TrEMBL record:
The keyword Cytoplasm applies. Pfam families: tRNA-synt_1b. It comes from the Eukaryota. It is an enzyme of class 6 (ligase). CDD domains: TrpRS_core. GO terms for molecular function: ATP binding; tryptophan-tRNA ligase activity. This is Tryptophan--tRNA ligase, cytoplasmic. Keywords: Aminoacyl-tRNA synthetase, ATP-binding, Cytoplasm, Ligase, Nucleotide-binding, Protein biosynthesis. It comes from Hordeum vulgare subsp. vulgare (Domesticated barley). InterPro entries: aa-tRNA-synth_I_CS (IPR001412), aa-tRNA-synth_Ic (IPR002305), Rossmann-like_a/b/a_fold (IPR014729), Trp-tRNA-ligase (IPR002306). GO terms for cellular component: cytoplasm. One of its GO terms (biological process) is tryptophanyl-tRNA aminoacylation. It is found in: Cytoplasm. Its EC number is 6.1.1.2.
Amino acid sequence: MSSVAPEVEKKEEEEEQVVNPWEVSAGKGGIDYDKLVDQFGCQRLHAALIDRIARLTGRPPHRFLRRGLFFAHRDLNEILDLFEKGDKFYLYTGRGPSSEALHLGHLVPFMFTKYLQDAFKVPLVIQLTDDEKFLWKNLTVEESKRLARENAKDIIACGFDVERTFIFSDFNFVGGAFYENMVKVARCVTYNKVVGIFGFTPEDHIGKISFPPVQAVPSFPSSFPKHFSGNDQLRCLIPCAIDQDPYFRMTRDVAPRIGYQKPALIESRFFPALQGENTKMSASDPNSAIYVTDNTKEIKTKVNKYAFSGGQDSVELHRKLGANLEVDVSIKYLNFFLEDDDELERIKKEYKEGSMLTGEVKQLLVKVLSEMVERHKRARARVTEEMVDAFMAVRPLPNMFG
C-alpha cells in the first residue's frame, strides 16, 4: 500500500465536513467540533465559566452546560463581567420557519434560552426569519408568514416570560430603525467578504446575498427603539447552534465600525438525526426527526426503526463486547433530555458493559421523549391567538429590566 494513502484518506474525510447556516454534513466520524472551533475562531466553553454561571445565578447549570452540549462561546466572560457588576444584557435567538411543527432539535436552543432568561432575568428578542425561508425554500410569502406564526406557538409553549420577550417575524417587522441598521451593516460588507463567509456562488440570487444583515441587526439594541429606549450600548448574548456562527462573525466584525457593541455567543453542538451524527436532524426528512406533534406510537416506531445503535449484532456478542456509546443515537438523545445525571451514568455504564441491551435503552428513551412531547403538547394547546399577539406586539416593555 502506498504511504500516501492514509494522508489522502484523511484529506477526503476533512473535505466531507460542511457546516454553514444552510447545510450540515460530515464523514463517517461525525462532526469534528474541535476543528470547527479552530476554523471559526471561537473559544471552548470551559468548566470555570460554567461554575461562574452557577455562582452568579444561584442556580445549578443547565444539563446542556454540564454535559458539554453548549460547548463554545464568544465573549461570554465579558457578559458575565457585566452581570457581576450589576449591569444587564439581553438575549437574542431565532427560528427559520420552514415546517408546520418543530422537531426536537429545534427545541434545544429555546429550552436553553428559557433557562438563561429565567436564570439572569433578562429580556429576549426572538426573530422568525420567514423572509429567509421564502428566499431559500419553495414557499410563498403567505405560507412563510403562516408558518412563522405557527412556530411562534411552539416557541411560546416553552414557557417564556411575556413581560420580557418580544417575538417578531421579519416580514411584519423590518423597517424603521431595524432597516437603518441593516443598510449600515450592508455598506460595511463587500461582496467578496460575504462570499468568503457564506460560500455564495454566482448562481445564487441576490436575495440570498443581501439577507445576512437581516439576521445581524437584532444583536444591536437600537434596532428595537421601543423596547430598548436609551440602551443603545446594551450587550447582546446569542444562544445558537454553531452553524449560525458565520452570521455573527460578520456582525462582530462590522459592529465597532458602526458604533455598536459586538454580540457575544454561546454555541451548541448539533442535535443528531436518528440515523446518526454525520448530519443534524432535518425537517426535510421526517424519518430523521421526532416532532413535537408525534404521538407515543410514532415516537416508539421511529426510535426502534431508525435510531442508530451502537450495540452489537447479536445478544451474545453484545454481552461480551458491550455497546459503542460514541455512535449510539439513543444515548445521545438521553444525554440531551434525561435530567437525572446519576441515572444517565448508570445507563451508560450498563450499556457499555453489555449488561443492558439496545432494546432496553431504546425503551427508556421512548419513555423520556414521550413524556417530554406530551408536556409540550399540553403547553402548546394553551397558547391562544391572543397570546401570540401579546408576544409579537411592538410596545414598551416596562418590566424588561425589573
